[in-house]
Amino acid sequence: MKHIYIIFLTFPIISFSQQEYEEYYSNGNLKIETTYYYDKLNGYFKSFYDCGTLESEGHYKNNQKKGFWKYYYKNGEVKSKKNYKYGKLRGYFMSFYQNGQLKEEGNYIDVQEKHGLWKTYYKNGQLKSEEIYKDKSLVSYKYFYVDGKGPSPSNKVFTKYNPLYRPSSW
């Protein structure tokens, strides 16, 4: 009986410290929908454009973005998919054109640094470039023609003797 009494006493304390929060635009449309826990963003978060369509969604923990987040264009198409750890980009990342085609993909590690193979695409879905990052540096890249043929002559591998080389088209 003593344990049940303690549970009943702690339940109101926990539930009163959690607060639902909504913010609205001047036109009456929902702007933000989230939860605060002890005055910190905690839980599911949604933001909306002033026209009412979803702008972003994901989770917060102790005022920091955590886990998988999605961002949207005003037309409802997915703009990007990102992973966060302790409020920093970490893990697989994807961005998209407004037509829904994949624009860029790759991985982030330590303090939002690009790592490994990153790919970018043209609006038609054809591969545009491949870049390889290691130890916070771009070590090689390839560019491809719009028609998917290639790679183009702008391929370059960076070395310790020529680390700052960039093609004139950048």
Walkthrough of the structure:
With 170 residues, the protein is mostly beta strands. It has a domain of 75 residues. Helix content is 9%, strand content 53%. It contains one helix and 14 strands; from the N terminus they run H-E-E-E-E-E-E-E-E-E-E-E-E-E-E. Strands 1, 2, 3, 4, 5, 6, 7, 8, 9, 10, 11, 12, 13 and 14 form a 14-stranded antiparallel sheet that branches. The relative contact order is 0.07. The C terminus is likely disordered.
Summary keywords:
14-stranded antiparallel β-sheet; 53% strand; 170 residues; disordered C terminus; mainly beta
Tell me the helix content. Answer: under 10%
The major pleated sheet works out as: 14 strands, antiparallel
Strand content: over 45%
Which H/E pattern describes the elements? HEEEEEEEEEEEEEE
Distance between the termini: 73 Å
Structural class: mainly beta
What does the secondary structure layout of this molecule look like, with pairings?
Elements: H1 2-17, E1 18-24, E2 30-37, E3 40-41, E4 43-48, E5 54-61, E6 64-72, E7 78-85, E8 88-89, E9 91-96, E10 102-109, E11 113-121, E12 127-134, E13 137-143, E14 156-157
Antiparallel strand pairs: 1-2, 2-3, 2-4, 4-5, 5-6, 6-7, 7-8, 7-9, 9-10, 10-11, 11-12, 12-13, 13-14
Give a nutshell description of this structure.
The chain is mostly beta strands. Helices cover 9% and strands 53% of the residues. The chain has a domain at 90-164.
